[in-house]
Amino acid sequence: MSFVSDTTAPVHPRIMDAIVEANAGVASSYGADPWTQRAIAQLKDVFETDCAVFFVASGTAANALALASITPPWGAILTHREAHIVLDEAGAPEFYTGGARLLLLDGPHAQFTPQTLDAEAARYARSNVHGVQPFSASISQVTESGAVYEASEVAAISEVCRARGLKLHMDGARFANALAATGATPAEMSWKAGVDVLSFGATKNGALSVEAIVCFDTDAARQLPHLRKRSGHLLAKHRLLGAQMAAYLEDGLWLRNAGHANAMAAKLAAVLESAGGECVHPVRGNAIFVRLDAPMAERLKSAGVVLYRWAPDGPDVYRFVASWATTDADIEVCAQALAAA
Ligand SMILES: *Cc1c(COP(=O)(O)O)cnc(C)c1O
User: Which candidate, 212, 221, 219, places its Cα nearest to that of 31?
Assistant: First the structure.
């Protein structure tokens, strides 16, 4: 059994069925197919606005292209030092922007405050030709430590962005989990709070391989078709991306999956805490970061649970991520293993 990541979960059967259905016969390529068009229309409904939508096959591509659409090569992107775009994308944001610099901010739970953002942006005057020019800020929602920004907190960050002339990107690899945690609507958590470009995740929450760049900024929207093609991310058999996203959004499957994953994480956190584990970050989404003593870790391992050390929080902290596919039986295995003490 593995709680290592939500990427270890299978594809949701409804999404797999949709792929198989869309695979019948010929269809227009490069996004001109009915599945893609339908998924784009669904996203406009979901976000209650006429956004521009671009599908890609990975979250790294979504983030790097989104950032490239709002940051020139001589620009800088302000973000948290533990952000996925900093630690887990092998320099893709720098590569796709043509060399923009990441400026790293501090803050607990992989979150930064408007004040921290403002102070760092203030260090780089726009008029100084010798320094990089801050053009954008990027926040992760849910964060890499499992924390969630409330919509009001996003709005406060975007206010600083407006004042400093920055565009705001949200890495929403787990956007659905953040909505399930806060009860905010997709619109409230994005453009109404001042987000310009959103990486809207689906892969971790039941899809096979599709993420949407949801663009609320018209300048960025004009560049994204070309950025995507130039980087090799305009898939020819695009209908298989569109079909995944359409099925993901159909009847609110995406929000049900995320709600389930969050609820399972809360249950598992309660099991681990009652056995003596200590959660080192607030459990809001589907990820738990918990300090376990050696006997606890051993008992879980003996029960067949694959453990994943989370080094940034210390040698005895482990990450557990629940998914749409996590069952009560999975959590019971952990409970039994720990109760056997
Ligand atoms: C998983 C993840 C991504 C996307 O990763 P890919 O492996 O490229 O799909 C982006 N941001 C965050 C915060 C993630 O956890």
Answer: 212
